[in-house]
Amino acid sequence: MEEESSQNQGGITPTPQQTNPSPPMPGTEAPAVGVSQTPQTSVMGTVNPNKGGRGKIFIWVILGLVILLILAASAYFLGSGKVPELISPKTETTQESAPPNEEFSETITSEPQVVEGTEDWLTYKKEGQFSFKYPLEGEIKEYDDGSIVVSQWGPTQKEGTEFYDGLSMSFRAFDPEGKTLKETADEKYLQLKEVFETTQPVVASVAGESGYAFRVQGYVRGDYYYVAINESLYLEIIDATKDPTNAGFTTTSEKILMTVTLGP
User: Fold this and answer.
1) Assuming Cys at both sites, which of 15, 57, 127, 206 could form a disulfide with 211, CB separation 3.0 to 4.6 Å?
2) In this predicted model, what pLDDT tens digit does every residue of 146-197 receive, in sequence order?
3) Any stretches that span the bilayer, and where are they (predicted)?
4) Rg for the chain, CA atoms, rounded
C-alpha cells in the first residue's frame, strides 16, 4: 500500500472513475473503439484541454468528408462505366475536303480559253476525253499506246538524231487502275527520279482544273502534267519542247497547253 501511494505522488495520473461517456461536441469525432487516447495532463493530474483547437479540428473534419465524397463518387463512376457529361463533352466533327481531283461524282467539262494568237490554229479532239489547238505548221501523230503527239522541227533539228530543237507535246488519256491523281503523279515522279534530276510534284492548273505537275531537268528536259478527266480516266501531258535558237517554240507550247479542254 505504501508503494502505490508513492507512485501516485510521482505525477502519474490516477485512473479516472468510469462515467457514462458524453456525446461528442458538434464538429468533432468520437474516439474510435478499442483505441486508447491519452489526454494531456498537468502536473496535478487534471486534463489540460487544447484551447483554440476546436475550430481547426472542425475544418479538417469538413475537408476530410469532402475528399471522401469525391473519392466515393469517382469510384462509383469508374466502376459503373458512367462518365458525367462535363468530363466528356460532345464534339462536332467536320468532313475534310478531298485533295484536288481525287474524288468525282460526275464528268468534268472545261470551257476552252480564248488565247491570243491561236484564232487560226487547228483543233484536235478525242471524243469524250480531251481537245487542244495547235499551229498549222504542227504535225499530229497517233501511237499504239494511245498517245497523241504534236510536233514541229526547229531550224537546227537533223533527221535521224535525237530530238533537240522544236515543238514536241504528247497527250495520253489512260485508266488510273484505282490510283488517285496524286498517287499517279508520285509514281511517275519516282520512276524518273531514278534516272534524271526531277522536281517534286506540285499542284498546278491544267485545263482550268487542279492537277499535278513536275519537271525533268538537264539535257533530257520535259514538263509532266496530270489532270483527271473523270474518276476513271486521267490525262497525261508531256511538254518536251526545246528552243535553243529562241524561235518561239516555248511560247507555242505554252499556248497549246492553255487551249486544252476536258470532257465531251
Assistant:
1) 206
2) 999 999 999 999 999 999 999 999 999 999 999 999 999 999 999 999 999 9
3) 57-78
4) 46
Mark whether 82 and 156 lie in a shared domain. Answer: no
* Nine-digit cell string for 21: 461517456
Report if residue 69 sits inside a domain: yes
CA distances from 108 to 26, 53, 155, 189, 192 (A): 83, 85, 39, 25, 29
Q: Which residue has the cell 518561239?
A: 248
pTM, 2 dp: 0.59
Residue whose cell numbers read 469538413: 62
Give the residue from 237, 174, 232, 175 showing the smallest Cα distance to 204. 237
Residue 77, all three cell numbers: 463512376
Task: At 25, list the grid cell.
Answer: 461536441
Dihedral (CA of 172, 179, 263, 206) sign:
negative
In 3D, which of 99, 66, 107, 61 has the Cα closest to residue 233? 107
Judge whether 234 lies within some domain: yes
